[in-house]
Amino acid sequence: MLTNSPVWKMACDQFDHIAEYLGIAQTERERMKDPKRIMVVHVPVRHDDGTVRNYTGFRVQHHMAFGPTKGGIRYHPDVTVGEVCALAMWMSWKCALVGLPYGGAKGGIACNPNKMSQTELERLTRRFTQELIPIIGPQIDIPAPDMGTNEQTMAWMMDSYSTRVGHTVLGVVTGKPVTVGGSLGRKEATGRGVAFLANRAMDALKIDADGATAVIQGFGNVGFHTAFGLALHGTKILAIGDHTGAVHNPKGLHLDELAAHVEKTKGVVGFKGGDVVTAEELLSLQCDVLIPAAVERVITEKNVKNLKCKILAEAANGPTTIEADKVLRDSDVFVLPDILCNSGGVIVSYFEWVQDLQNFFWTEVEVNDRLYRILEQTLSQVMQFVKREKVYYRDAALAIGVKKVADAKKVRGLFP
Ligand code: NAD
Question: Fewer Cβ in 10 A, N or C end of the chain?
């Protein structure tokens, strides 16, 4: 049904590999893989020029064994149901790995937010939320931002849901602006977490973060905060790429100037503080840490042999294909797998949800402290698993997450 998507196939192949390793019964495997619920909607939107366009949107809820489902909403022209199903499955293993009481979910609309006005995006978001009302809610499914969406999108979603039910429901989405129930530190959390884990990986490899080098693909929410998080400890960001191109400066990019340029022009291309490099050159630059923080499947069997990094910190979801992963598992590269590496976002989303439910808000220091404790603990669990079982980093992280879901499903029964 869904196998026409390479991303879905990739998520299934990863799961099958781990299910085999864990000895999960064949009869259980289909039920663990297939999403519990898929909603497809068509959302008509009136554009500023008066024309009406019909957009296709999806929401996928993967499993319900721990409680409500949780996951981002993506606005991107290439969004497909298969991709959203894969992202929902990865959310399940991620939440379980870091110990959050959620099943995975994901949503998306095939649209190009870069070519839409704010009013068009608002109409699209409100109409989409209206369609999702029967299947979202603070105890059912809690959306959050992902690629192409942000705090403003979440504020519109929360407002549309609240007007429909007749009172303000802060906990229906996370990643909101702080003024309307968002958590301090949520916007920065994913990138902050990536930088924290990359620093821990550098410690493990005895690389001094001060003076180390990094290359980042993606300069949106995650790439931006990762770059600044790494720079805080003296790591030089040699190159950054996005959908418009890539820039490289062997002495290190001036991040504030690049951020100002991107704010103004909506892309890194044309930045004067670096030389132009191609997307492929970007990924093969010599560096200590390479951070894909944009789309899926960018590290492939074609370019994996060209990587010259010591650490691959997967900030994006699914950046490495199965074929490339086969090469990486036999290499010396320290891989921080996506479900661990970018988990800071959903961890602080969980904190936001908890704060919203209790109407009791924490300081940023409390948020960061709790975030780092969970990341530290999870990384150490994964590293111990790798050492004890002599397995690859991704297999260890997935095995821990998948096993927790399998155990919960077993004790609950067939429903969730
Ligand atoms: P974003 O929309 O804020 O930024 C995306 C960035 O990727 C932009 O700089 C864009 O120009 C760039 N990009 C898009 N297509 C590209 C391409 N083909 N080649 C190179 N660059 C491209 O999105 P984000 O929230 O930063 O998310 C980035 C990744 O991190 C996604 O894989 C997302 O699923 C993952 N992630 C995000 C969060 C979060 O909290 N936002 C949490 C966990 C994981």
Answer: N
